[in-house]
Amino acid sequence: MRVQRLKRLILFGPYVLALAGMVICIILSVLLVRQQKRIDALEEEIGHLTVYQNGLIEKISSVSSSVDDLGSAVGAISTELSLVDIGAYTGSKSSTSATSWPHKVYLTFDDGPSVNTEKILDILDSYGVKGNFFMVGTDNPDLQKMYKRIVDEGHVLCMHSYSHKYNEIYSSVDAFTRDLDQIYSLMYEVTGTRPRYYRFPGGSSNSVSRLPMKDFIKVLDERGIRYFDWNVVAGDATNPMLPADQIIENSLCDLNEYEEAMILFHDLSNKTSTVEALPAIIEAIQASGIPIATIDDTTVNIQHYANTN
Ligand SMILES: [Zn+2]
């Protein structure tokens, strides 16, 4: 029996061993394949994680560039704001508009002195502004004091004829000269200062003169007196009296048309809406940063006659 068993063992042993080996190999192969699959799955997962990580990095960098953009936007807005501030301060529209505002505005008042002259002087004083007064003659001592106050407070006192009567002044060169001498002497006598500027009653382009205006301009030239008209009209010469808001609008709407704007107001005693309108006009001009100036030798020629003939 033993011999038979031994024979069987010798006969089948190798087969059994080989079979066992094969089985072990198969099992190991299966395990290997499984492990490999796990490794592949892990690698894939790592790949996904890498992609996700790259995505995150991309997002972070895009957020950071957004923050940068936001920063430069804020910077640009700040720059804009500071430009606006400067623009408001200087009143210069040149950066935003081809039309530039005037370099100067002259406030000119015709036909005084009157009770309104005093009110206008008080208003000008409260804003620290100087005006230009084209005045006529008067024998009223109280009104004559206005000439002196104007000069003493640094405003410019100018002549506008003594009588303001077109029929007399423009009737002849002699009549014009007599009237001129009269207002010139009165102003010099009251103020101790020689007036140097003149405004023709009705302007140098008036249609009431019997003689050519150049004949009268010659008289002024011979005496070294410059004359000025205006290029902006407040509209307060109309009858009935213009409302204050209309005077404000008229005075401000055309200012940017001229290199130097000269606004024509009137300070006759019945022109109360001019007095009423003046503070708002001064405030608007000051807010735009344009200097309110007095007439001097550097003032450009604002003359209707020269412009139209
Ligand atoms: Zn006048």
Structure description:
With 309 residues, the protein is of the alpha/beta class. It has 2 domains: 1-90; 104-308, Alpha-Beta Barrel (TIM Barrel). The protein has 9 helices and 8 strands. The strands form 2 sheets. Strands 1, 2, 3, 6, 7 and 8 form a 6-stranded parallel sheet that branches. Helix 2 (115-127) packs parallel to helix 8. The protein is rod-shaped, with a radius of gyration of 48 Å. The N and C termini lie far apart (155 Å). The model is unreliable at 70-98 (pLDDT under 50). Bound molecules: zinc ion. Residues 110-111, 160, 164, 201 line the site of zinc ion.
Rg, Å, rounded: 48 Å
What class, by secondary structure content? alpha/beta
Order of helices and strands: HEHEHEHHEHEEHEHEH
User: How much helical structure, as a percent, in the residues?
Assistant: 55-70%
What is the CATH homology-level superfamily of the largest domain? Glycoside hydrolase/deacetylase
User: What gap, in angstroms, lies between the N and C termini?
Assistant: 155 Å
| Tally of DSSP helical segments | 9
Number of strands: 8
Q: Overall 3D geometry? A: rod-shaped
User: What is the domain tally?
Assistant: 2
Multimerization status? single chain
Question: Major beta sheet, specifics?
Answer: 6 strands, parallel
